[in-house]
Design a protein that fits this description.
heterodimer; A: 326 residues; alpha+beta; Jelly Rolls; Phage tail protein beta-alpha-beta fold; 13-stranded mixed beta sheet; 11 helices; 32% strand; elongated; B: Rna Polymerase Sigma Factor, Chain: A; 9 helices; 0% strand
Chain lengths: 326, 181
């Protein structure tokens, strides 16, 4: 770093920015750290120049995705949009497309749609350009389109937790079957499995309304509430739920308090390639309470058998759960 | 935050502690740049003090300042490991309890004048970044706004890591001059 006798404001600002960039990239070795320390103390203005550069750097880091998005809208170039559109198609569903997608001004092409798919048992976190994150559980497919007037997600199958960045003028919609969830900024879990839609709110508030053409009323859910709905039916059930339990799948645990065994099986079938079935309808309705740690399928079924009197029988490509003989 | 050890009546007699107290401001800056949070930086500086005060004093160093920074790096490593452990243990729980402190939408909405101020601030950030020369802007955007490492940014731009550092530093300097006014 420049420490000559002509050390002035210009050089000081150069060094301050260089130290901030260097430090943010990684810890310094001892020698370099001692040099940094010496520079800070070498002249009275150095520390405040460093503070100023650090404050600006952290302001950009905090607002990163928003600034990136708005920057891209500033410099959309109509002449080149054909070329860019092709580039996106080439990227397919990869998360990398999100970075490219913002280059396109929405009024020219409409928002690009990114599709995210997880295999059974695979969990994945997707960070959207607007600062929202989506945690996808196994066996999930969803599509995301970030438009200027709103953010649109379609959950075709599976389960995901949405942590939505607040943007009052850009509502966030999640379509799941014949229900649509509308939010402004919040955290919630949406699940669509075997024709059943569930929404659990951890933070903020969301509205669940029938999709166009579907019957039913609109409900506003608050933290700790869960809505269950059978697709095609006009009615929904709203109950209290512990969001930390509902969201526990993200850390590899499933928590149940009296849910029917059929729901547990639907959850497990998102995790493991070997499908599990129950043919006994009375058994399927048996309530389950307990915590299942997700490791191997065999181990999970063994633990499940401690909660409910069942055993698994191999049948064709899958497993069938049967009631233990009395 | 308590600084009890440092504001106590007893002056430390350990030379390393003397140096720590002299350099405390510098160390907080080091932590702040590494961790991105002034609050965490203060905590780490406090932890560093405890580590120095309770260290094996038979170990001496030719360069005490370098030694302090070595311990500082270890303090950050320890904290990162601890955080990774507890995060893995109960990520969902932490996020949820954090989030339900306030009750509803309302808790997450900034008051109107704050929202206006932050919108203005955001516009300034966007305009300042938008006026950077193209290469600087590209590097700054990939690294700072999209969170790519220096190496990834270098790969995307097809330039060396050194050049990335140069572009990002130049960008940050220009932005600081402009926004600092």
């Amino acid at each position: 770093m420049n420490l000559s006798w002509r050390y002035g404001d210009e050089a000081r600002r150069d060094d301050a920015a260089a130290w901030v960039v260097r430090l943010e990239a990684g810890s310094l070795g001892e020698t370099e750290a001692a040099a940094f320390d010496a520079w800070l103390s070498a002249a009275p203005g150095n520390a405040s120049a460093f503070d100023a550069a650090l404050a600006v750097s952290q302001a950009y880091a905090a607002a990163g995705p928003v600034v990136a998005h708005q920057l891209s809208q500033r410099r959309a170039v109509p002449l080149r949009h054909e070329l860019r559109r092709r580039a996106i198609v080439g990227f397919g569903a990869a998360a990398a497309a999100a970075a490219l997608a913002v280059v396109i001004a929405p009024e020219l092409t409409g928002p690009a749609t990114d599709t995210y798919v997880t295999a059974k048992g695979e969990r994945r976190t997707v960070r959207l350009q607007d600062g929202s994150t989506i945690d996808l559980n196994g066996g999930t497919r969803l599509a995301v389109a970030l438009a200027r007037d709103g953010r649109y997600v379609t959950l075709s199958e599976g389960q995901a937790v949405f942590d939505v960045a607040h943007a009052a003028r850009r509502p966030f919609y999640v379509a799941a079957g014949d229900r649509t969830v509308r939010v402004v900024g919040t955290q919630f879990d949406v699940r669509r499995l075997a024709g059943k839609v569930s929404v659990t709110v951890a933070r903020g508030a969301v509205e669940v309304r029938p999709a166009a053409g579907a019957a039913g009323k609109t409900y506003r859910l608050h933290p700790g509430q869960r809505l269950d709905h059978q697709e095609g039916a006009p009615s929904v059930q709203v109950a209290t739920a512990a969001p930390d339990e509902v969201l526990a799948w993200r850390t590899g645990r499933l928590v149940y308090r009296g849910q029917p065994l059929s729901e547990v099986i639907a959850d497990l079938n998102q995790q493991y390639a070997t499908p599990i079935r129950i043919e006994d309808t009375a058994l399927a309705a048996t309530p389950v309470s307990g915590v299942l740690v997700l490791d191997s399928q065999d181990a999970v079924i063994r633990r499940l058998a401690l909660l409910v009197p069942i055993h698994a029988v191999r049948s064709g490509p899958g497993l069938v759960l049967k009631r233990d003989p009395a | 935050m308590s600084l009890l050890a440092e504001t106590g009546a007893q002056r430390p007699t350990d030379p390393l502690l003397e140096i720590y107290l002299e350099r405390r401001g510098n160390l907080v800056r080091y932590f702040a740049a590494r961790c991105g949070s002034p609050g965490v930086a203060e905590d780490l500086a406090q932890e560093l003090y405890v580590k120095i005060a309770t260290r094996d004093t038979t170990v001496t160093a030719d360069n005490p300042v370098a030694l302090i920074y070595r311990i500082a790096n270890n303090v950050m490593l320890d904290r990162a490991r601890g955080e990774a452990r507890s995060l893995a243990r109960d990520a969902a729980w932490r996020r949820v309890t954090h989030a339900t402190v306030g009750d509803e939408d309302v808790a997450e909405l900034a008051p109107a004048d704050e929202a206006v101020a932050s919108r203005q601030r955001l516009r300034q950030l966007v305009e300042a970044a938008g006026d950077l020369p193209p290469r600087q802007q590209h590097a700054f955007r990939l690294h700072k706004l999209e969170g790519k490492s220096h190496a990834e940014t270098a790969r995307v731009m097809g330039i060396s890591v050194k050049s990335v550092e140069k572009h990002v530093s130049a960008a940050l300097k220009a932005l600081t001059v402009r926004l600092g006014r």
